[in-house]
Amino acid sequence: MFAYVVKRVLSGIAVVILVSMSVFALFWYGPSEPARPICNNQTGNRCSAEKLEMFKENLGYNNPVYVEYGKWAKGVLVGREIQFGSIPIECPAPCLGLSFRTNQPVFEEMKQRLPATISVAIGGAFLYLAFGIPIGVAAAQRRGTVADKALVSSFLFLSSIPYYLFALLFWLYMTVIWQVPIFSDTGYTPFTENPYKWFTGLFLAWVALGIFGATSYTRYSRGSMVEALSEDYIRTARSKGLAKRTVVYKHALRAAMVPVVTIFGLDLGILLSGTIFTERIFDIHGIGWWGVEAVGIKDLNVVAATTLFGAIMIIASNIIVDVIYSVLDPRVRLS
User: Fold this and answer.
1) Residue 65 and residue 87: Cα distance in Å, rounded?
2) Max CA-CA distance within the chain?
3) I need a surface site. Which of 240, 262, 315, 323 has the fewest CB within 10 A?
4) Nearest-CA neighbor of 183 among 208, 213, 146?
5) Given this model, what pLDDT does residue 4 score?
6) Residue ranges of the domains in the chain?
7) d(CA 320, CA 312)
8) Given CA atoms 106, 108, 109, 113 in this order, what sign does their dihedral have?
9) Closest to 264 measured CA to CA, from 306, 318, 219, 327
10) In angstroms, rounded to a whole number, what is the distance separating the alpha carbons of residues 203 and 136?
11) CB–CB of 219/156 below 8 Å?
12) Contact assessment for residue 34 and residue 28, using Cβ atoms and an 8 Å cutoff
């Protein structure tokens, strides 16, 4: 088990390195001139050819890409000093560059926005499971009934709506049309400042994510439970006289959760990398909102950092899911 975990972690690190190379290459060879946004920012959009060349030289864009990638990778590990025009700025490790808009280290800005994204992701993911799995298990036990067919068809219809449209309509009805008091105050307030405002500001976003995500997890858990309940060992457990609750929740559900955990691991990684639509619609300034703003103003260091952060979250969640397999299903053997 330990050897498997080490192997998966090492392979994950290798993938992160390859992703960082790809992101750096796209940043370097992309259609936008990397030095122009910061030149415009420093000169008030009066960037002459001479000043642009000066910024390109100071930022290393005239050097070979492999040389600059080495400097960037070293900065991630030990930090570095970045020259912005005539101003040297210290960028401590892990240095992901400086924001073209604020001239501040990207990682420091990311740390400020990360709690908002984590709060949204954890709350929404919890409701995914809290709504989806119990409903899916109940539907599987009533397979073929009118209630089962009605539930599956209604959830299939709901999941066919694009999430951004569902979230926007949900916000509009709850806050503007119906003016539900508990949903009236959206936005992120740090938990340490005011726990009550933290909860009420995120509650509407959590419910929207939970309802929409539960439609998929109901179908996933129902399908897995239907398959698990038809297995030979389940029939054997029933023939031995075990209680229905024990058969369903101790034996069948444990095996049925393996494919659900796979999908949940990917979804959680995506949520942690930045819930773009949720943050924009519900006025939560997290990683997703930050990344979208960076694309609009061509803050390329922020775009590269958010892309790399998203890849790390998805890779890490996959490693965790692989390890959890052996706990949920003893038939799975990690080697």
Assistant:
1) 23
2) 85
3) 240
4) 208
5) 74
6) 2-106, 111-328
7) 12
8) positive
9) 318
10) 24
11) yes
12) yes
Domain covering 111-328 assigned CATH 3.30.420.270 in the classification = no
For residue 6, the one-letter residue type is V
Ordered per-residue pLDDT tens for the chain, 335 residues: 677 778 888 998 999 999 999 988 887 777 667 777 777 777 777 788 888 888 788 778 888 888 989 999 999 999 998 876 667 888 999 999 888 888 889 999 999 999 999 999 999 999 989 999 999 999 999 998 998 999 888 988 998 999 999 999 999 999 989 988 888 778 899 999 999 999 999 999 999 999 999 999 999 999 999 999 999 989 999 888 889 889 998 889 888 888 888 888 889 888 988 788 999 999 999 999 999 999 888 888 898 899 999 989 999 988 888 778 767 665 555 55
H helices within 172-243, ranges in order?
Answer: 195-229, 232-239
pLDDT value at position 18?
Answer: 93
The residue among 312, 277, 271 whose CA lies nearest residue 127 is: 271
Give the single-character DSSP code of 182.
G
Sign of CA dihedral 214, 219, 224, 227: positive
d(CA 213, CA 124): 8
Closest CA to 180 of 164, 202, 204, 199: 204
Angle at which helix 106-141 crosses helix 287-297, to 10 degrees, equals 130
Q: Tokens 């803050």 correspond to what residue?
A: 299
8 A C-beta contact, residue 70 and residue 84: no
Structure tokens at 242: 């075990």
As a whole number of angstroms, the distance between CA 307 and CA 20 comes to 9
- Write out the DSSP string of 52-84: HHHHHHHTTTTS-HHHHHHHHHHHHHH-EEEEE
- pLDDT value at position 330? 59
| Beta strand spans in the chain (E) | 80-84, 87-91
**What is the residue whose two structure tokens read 């996933």?**
220
